[in-house]
């Protein structure tokens, strides 16, 4: 069980599965120490989700096990009537009330168990709704820079994968544990009433099953930890072979045979690993059965001794036999629940820690309303560094944007253009310096309201699996700009005309009736989305990256017309498109190194002039 490689495939534990390794290294007493806190946490979450269902679940569990004890005591009365002497019609008649009590207790026990299970089954989807809603609400409310922090990103991914597993499994495990312990307590209490010596006999009979249950559970967790990497690799290969993104390349490069062989090879290794675990579990089960048989023999011997010495009646001894059998089942249920609760608790802690971290990273926003128009945006000496970066992305950057202007940001890849645009757009807060709108510091402005006044056309935009109309109007269905005008200005009208259902066409071929667009067609949809937003400030970050020269020219002309009564911040590598900008800022290594109009920058013969000349020469030579 200690294999760490599969023919070169690394199987060492990753952070995703660290908790499985922790469970493997933990003993029963560690689990028992954590149990009270886990019970408290999951019941508090359950109470907040549905108080009625929580009360029904807990109350039904408790009452059902009380009827277990009542049934045992009633069984003793029945057997006493039947075993006190030779059965006669009178004695049978006298036993009828006891028999009715036994049957009634059994019926009510089953009914309350079903009620508890019904409440738990209701709580399960409600709990998942609560957990997922909170995760999504917190995740969408953190500062955008959190997604650039590897620590937060990894935590979010891990929590997303285990959110279903943690709280839901924890609730099941806690209720299983409580039911087992309450049942064991009820049985023990009933036997204690009959004779004090019967209680230690119950505990003695439970020892072997306890050991075997813990041993089998530990092996299960060791299997989970041991095959984690292989399972992950297996799942990755299966997704590649069964989903659309890789389908064409698998066929183009004739990779099918290789992938099938790799998949089968990993599956064989996992199966061998699991079969070895099955043998260990069987051995534990055999030893548990052996010692369990010996313990049962000792218990029955002790019962026989009590009968022989006259310390218990035959009816009580018969009841004790039934109780021993039920106690073994209750003990096994409780211990299995403890093991599962401990494992689920680790995943649940992931969820709790993530929520706490996300709340600490919540977006900082003021409460001042933004100006009605983008009146004099000023960026003064700002610095910004990404969480995992060693060097700042922006250093001492200062620019200004006047109402109605077209301002361009140019520079090589990595110069800080997009980062600066995100700071201006209220997506990032600078580490130092200020961004003001109409003289008001951006930190004092309601950033959500501010972003309502900004439209962004980005190079890397989301291909929403929605209809064409929804892709354009998403987030802004109250825009004054008509959809037809946005379609025409962006050239997306020609795209929509070719779609089988027009604006109602689903832009995702994995759905029935859906279709896929080319990169250029998607770019037009994205431009239409930005224009339809009808915002006072339009930020264009490489808006024509996927378009041909003719389409690019048409889009830039549309943006120029659109900018007549708006302010535009343009980012592009194609310098021919920024000649008409009112002001151009040249960035290099996160700093503004040049500023001016196209004419003044060309006369300066600096970085901008060099870049423009190189591009012009390339186009001339190609021509």
From TrEMBL:
| Keyword hit for Nucleotide-binding | yes
Coarse class of the primary localization is membrane
Pfam families per record: ABC_tran
Q: What InterPro entries does the entry give?
A: AAA+_ATPase (IPR003593), ABC1_TM_dom (IPR011527), ABC1_TM_sf (IPR036640), ABC_transporter-like_ATP-bd (IPR003439), ABC_transporter-like_CS (IPR017871), P-loop_NTPase (IPR027417), Type_1_exporter (IPR039421)
The listed locations are: Cell membrane
The source's superkingdom equals: Bacteria
| Organism for this UniProt entry | Nonomuraea endophytica
The residue ranges of the ABC transmembrane type-1 domain are: 55-343
By what name is this protein known? ATP-binding cassette subfamily B protein/ATP-binding cassette subfamily C protein
Could you name the Gene Ontology cellular component terms for this entry? plasma membrane
Membrane spanning stretches: 55-74, 94-112, 170-191, 197-214, 286-308
Ranges where the ABC transporter domain occurs: 377-614
**Keywords from the UniProt entry:** ATP-binding, Membrane, Nucleotide-binding, Transmembrane, Transmembrane helix
**What's an example of a GO molecular-function annotation for this chain?**
ABC-type oligopeptide transporter activity
- What does the record say about its membrane topology? Multi-pass membrane protein
């Amino acid at each position: 069980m200690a294999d760490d490689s599969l023919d070169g495939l690394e199987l060492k534990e990753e952070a995703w599965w660290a908790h499985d390794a922790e469970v493997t290294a933990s003993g029963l007493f560690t689990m028992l120490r954590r149990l009270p806190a886990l019970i408290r946490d999951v019941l508090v979450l359950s109470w907040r989700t549905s108080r009625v269902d929580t009360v029904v679940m807990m109350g039904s569990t408790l009452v059902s096990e009380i009827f277990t004890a009542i049934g045992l005591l009633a069984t003793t009365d029945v057997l006493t009537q039947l075993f006190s002497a030779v059965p006669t019609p009178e004695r049978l008649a006298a036993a009828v009330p006891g028999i009715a009590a036994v049957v009634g207790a059994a019926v009510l026990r089953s009914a309350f168990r079903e009620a508890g299970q019904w409440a738990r089954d209701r709580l399960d989807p409600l709990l998942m709704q609560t957990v997922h809603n909170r995760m999504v609400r917190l995740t969408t409310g953190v500062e955008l820079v959190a997604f650039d922090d590897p620590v937060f990103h990894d935590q979010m991914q891990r929590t997303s994968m285990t959110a279903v597993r943690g709280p839901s499994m924890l609730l099941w495990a806690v209720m299983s544990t409580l039911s087992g312990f309450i049942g064991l307590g009820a049985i023990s209490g009933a036997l204690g009433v009959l004779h004090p010596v019967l209680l230690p006999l119950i505990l003695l009979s439970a020892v072997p099953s306890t050991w075997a249950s813990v041993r089998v559970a530990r092996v299960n967790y060791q299997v989970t930890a041991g095959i984690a990497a292989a399972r992950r690799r297996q799942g990755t290969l299966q997704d590649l072979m069964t989903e659309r993104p890789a389908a064409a390349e698998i066929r183009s490069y004739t990779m099918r045979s290789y992938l099938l062989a790799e998949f089968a090879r990993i599956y064989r290794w996992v199966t061998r690993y699991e079969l070895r675990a099955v043998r260990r579990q069987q051995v534990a089960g055999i030893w548990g059965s052996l010692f369990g048989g010996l313990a049962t023999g000792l218990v029955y011997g002790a019962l026989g001794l009590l009968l022989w010495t006259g310390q218990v009646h035959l009816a009580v001894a018969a009841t004790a036999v039934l109780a021993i059998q039920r106690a073994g089942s209750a003990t096994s249920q409780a211990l299995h629940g403890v093991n599962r609760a401990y494992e689920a608790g680790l995943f649940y802690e992931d969820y709790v820690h993530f929520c706490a971290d996300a709340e600490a990273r919540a977006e900082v926003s003021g409460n001042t309303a933004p100006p009605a128009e983008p009146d004099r945006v000023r960026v003064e000496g700002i610095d910004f560094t990404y969480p995992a970066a060693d060097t700042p992305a922006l250093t001492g950057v200062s620019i200004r944007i006047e109402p109605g202007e077209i301002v361009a940001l140019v520079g090589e890849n990595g110069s800080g253009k997009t980062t600066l645009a995100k700071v201006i757009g209220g997506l990032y807060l600078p580490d130092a310096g200020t961004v003001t709108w109409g003289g008001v510091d951006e930190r004092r402005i309601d950033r959500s309201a501010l972003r309502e006044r900004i439209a962004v056309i980005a190079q890397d935009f989301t291909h929403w699996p929605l209809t064409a109309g929804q892709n354009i109007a998403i987030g802004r269905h109250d825009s004054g700009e008509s959809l037809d005008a946005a379609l025409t200005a962006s050239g997306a009208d020609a795209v929509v005309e070719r779609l089988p259902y027009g604006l109602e066409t689903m832009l995702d071929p994995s759905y029935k009736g859906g279709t896929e667009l080319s990169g250029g067609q998607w770019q037009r949809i994205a431009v239409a989305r930005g224009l339809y937003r009808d915002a006072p400030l339009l930020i264009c970050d490489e808006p024509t990256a996927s378009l041909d020269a003719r389409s690019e020219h048409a889009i830039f002309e549309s943006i120029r017309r659109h900018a007549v009564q708006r302010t535009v911040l343009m980012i592009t590598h194609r310098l021919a498109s920024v000649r008409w900008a009112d002001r151009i800022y040249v960035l290099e290594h996160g700093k503004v190194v040049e500023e001016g109009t196209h004419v003044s920058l060309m006369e300066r013969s600096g970085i901008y002039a060099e870049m423009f000349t190189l591009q012009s020469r390339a186009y001339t030579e190609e021509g």
